[in-house]
Design goal:
2 copies of one chain form a homodimer. Chain A is α/β, with parallel strands linked by helices. Chain A has 2 domains: 141 residues, Peroxisomal Thiolase, Chain A, domain 1 (3-Layer(aba) Sandwich); 226 residues, Peroxisomal Thiolase, Chain A, domain 1. In chain A, 40% of the residues lie in helices and 18% in strands. Chain A has 16 helices and 11 strands. Chain A has a 9-stranded mixed β-sheet with strand order 3-2-4-7-1-8-11-10-9, sandwiched between helices. Chain A has a two-stranded antiparallel sheet with strand order 5-6. In chain A, β10 and β11 form a beta hairpin. In chain A, α1 packs across α3 and α8 crosses α13. The two termini of chain A are 18 Å apart. Chains A and B meet through α1, α2, α3, β3 and α4 of A and α1, α2, α3, β3 and α4 of B.
Chain lengths: 385, 385
């Protein structure tokens, strides 16, 4: 397989993008990525666009060709929307990566987008629950806040993880977001504020939950051997993993998400590196507890040690493994179909040495994107070149 | 690139599958395909599932991992839902084909599914319109029946295609469906009945429109070099094309769908065959006029000659190029996310010599799947081996 690199990235701000259609958001992110790469858009051979609930919330499907027409891509461009709940953009990236690595394409545009703020919180909660198995979880009335509440309960029961440790994820990520102009919330919060915020699903409070947001993110990929024709700072994709979980097992077995365990294993094997080699990571903190479980599933910490790691500051910008230096989904916002590439955008800035919360000498980065009740996960390992 | 073959296929009947969830339909088709292939399901490395409006109509997204759990696939299986309107299953097949052809996977399951009958016709019409560009076509209030009415008007204006020629597509396809137990309608219709049926969008009448239906279809793919370990009748995929159109141009420029023209060109070049080499074809007759335009875009007939070709009987089972010997979408039904693989199922039966309307010595077949207002198209060329 050929080495593949990112030669351009683009993103909208994440937040409430009033007056922009979902097509416009995707097109803005993609246009920025294309301009950042400096390629002729007519050279793009395929376009994979991640989106999760655009059909339900704004009645727009077939987004990849619709956006491609807006972008003025070539008529021979193979355009595909991919969906895997909140993991949709991570999957889009992987399709493009594989087809370049295997020598079929030379230039692929990958993106992700979601427009959520035009719908009510109730409608969003209902739409997001479409990622659950309707025949099983759906009948129980489970929603994602309820689900991650169960995950937190189980983690506390199994490992003695404390409510304070869980809340500290929010404090850390909100602090990181202060300097990030792309983040929706750019304001610090105290542990006391987190713990005293409104209860959502016991033990998760309001500040343990990411905000519903709009946004788009995109990247242009090409073979590494020609990447320097387009940029001085290509970001090499060292490995890409994609795993399958089992609905409900996330909360019930461990708690651990087998999809993430498998995706991380696949990505690390492809990359030839270990978790201890990673200098900076953006991982899926849709809820505070998710970051803790993710950090164990990836292998940054032993099972049950994710909570104490946060408390000891190991995941802060100057810690052993800085996690979510962007502010994470908790502060940046979580436009679900865009998040996977939003994460890659932030990791890439770190590896280029251009991040607002720069990790010194960051060379190897990781982005991890989770979907549904642990049903699907992607892990991408990136390297500055 | 390695040669790739289909070693197993499965389908539900297409029609009104009351009491079956969308997950159950997909799982039934996939289980049949896996059993037909005779492989160990734990050997499946990736699963691509096409679905279009499951989010809007039945509130189920993330279908690929949800169905994979039901099937008991391995935890390392990369599961992705792909969407490109009515072309979703054609795209799913292409992803699997490419990743085996390029040597990344050995066994891939591809499927398509849609559950439509539980929603009203009005709700289905609204849901299907999610495939149109909301910012452009959406504002006009255009729906697909309206859209294909425009296509028909334009074809009649440009080429003198007659309303009788258009209606004859329905007569032919309904006749073909009589012997097909998988079809929703298994009853002949006369040209008089078609022409006298209720007006939907001038000049298209009720019998010019495919019925809203439920269904699932699936296939198991592997490298051709090991295909005979699993079946005596593997079906080789000679070529696969995927093109991008422009919304509204289908009706306005020609009328022709550039997505189909490009997809056919790509598929024929990969396959090293010409339209005249094709012995049997299933092409996208969501409306009668679509079959005529498709047949020209693929290159079976010169521009404007698709109408007379139907009148002359060239597309009948014993004609020059038998088209939709299954009865087509017009008779089989059109569960939109499943149709692409439903077509491949029918072509494969022909190439195995097992079809109810067997075309003598059929060796090379073609399946062509169209999405939205001509925005996306896939063409697959198949060969008995």
């Amino acid at each position: 397989m050929r080495s593949v690199s990112i030669i351009g990235m683009g993103t909208t701000n994440f937040g409430i993008l009033e007056g922009m259609s979902i097509k416009a958001m995707a097109a803005r992110a993609c246009n920025r990525a294309i301009m950042d790469a400096g390629i002729d858009r007519k050279d793009i051979q395929a376009f994979y666009l991640g989106n999760y609930i655009g059909g339900i919330l704004v009645g727009q499907e077939t987004l990849a060709p619709v956006v491609a027409c807006e972008l003025g891509l070539n008529k021979t461009t193979a355009c595909t929307k991919v969906e895997g709940a909140c993991c949709s953009a991570g999957i889009a990236l992987r399709q493009g990566y594989l087809l370049i690595a295997l020598g079929f394409y030379d230039f692929v545009l990958v993106g992700g987008v979601e427009k959520m703020s035009s719908a009510s919180t109730a409608k969003n909660t209902e739409a997001l629950a479409a990622g659950m198995d309707k025949d099983m979880e759906g009948y129980t009335g489970l929603t994602f806040p309820g689900y991650f509440g169960l995950v937190a309960q189980r983690h506390m029961y199994e490992y003695g993880t404390t409510i304070e440790q869980i809340g500290m994820v929010s404090v850390k990520n909100r602090k990181n977001a202060v300097k990030n102009p792309r983040a929706r919330f750019q304001k610090e919060t105290s542990l006391e504020q987190v713990l005293n915020s409104r209860m959502i699903t016991d033990p998760l409070k309001l500040f343990d939950c990411c905000p519903i947001s709009d946004g788009g993110a995109a990247a242009v990929l090409c073979p590494t051997e020609i990447a320097r024709n387009f940029t001085d700072k290509p970001i090499e994709i060292l490995g890409s993993g994609h795993g399958l979980g089992m609905s409900t097992s996330y909360a019930m077995e461990g708690p651990s998400c087998t999809a993430t365990v498998f995706a991380a294993k696949e990505a690390f094997e492809m990359a030839g590196v270990k978790p201890s080699n990673v200098d900076v990571a953006e991982i899926h903190d849709c809820f505070t507890i998710a970051e803790i479980v993710d950090s164990e599933d990836i292998g940054f910490f032993e099972r049950g040690k994710g909570g104490p790691a946060v408390e000891e500051g190991l995941t802060q910008v100057d810690g052993k493994i800085p996690i979510n230096t962007s502010g994470g989904l908790l502060s940046k916002g979580h436009p679900v179909g865009a998040t996977g590439l939003g994460q890659v955008y932030e990791v890439s800035r770190q590896l280029k040495g251009e991040h607002e919360n720069q990790v010194k000498d960051a060379e190897i980065g990781l982005a991890m994107n989770l979907g549904a009740s642990g049903l699907v996960s992607t892990v991408t390992i990136l390297k500055r070149s």
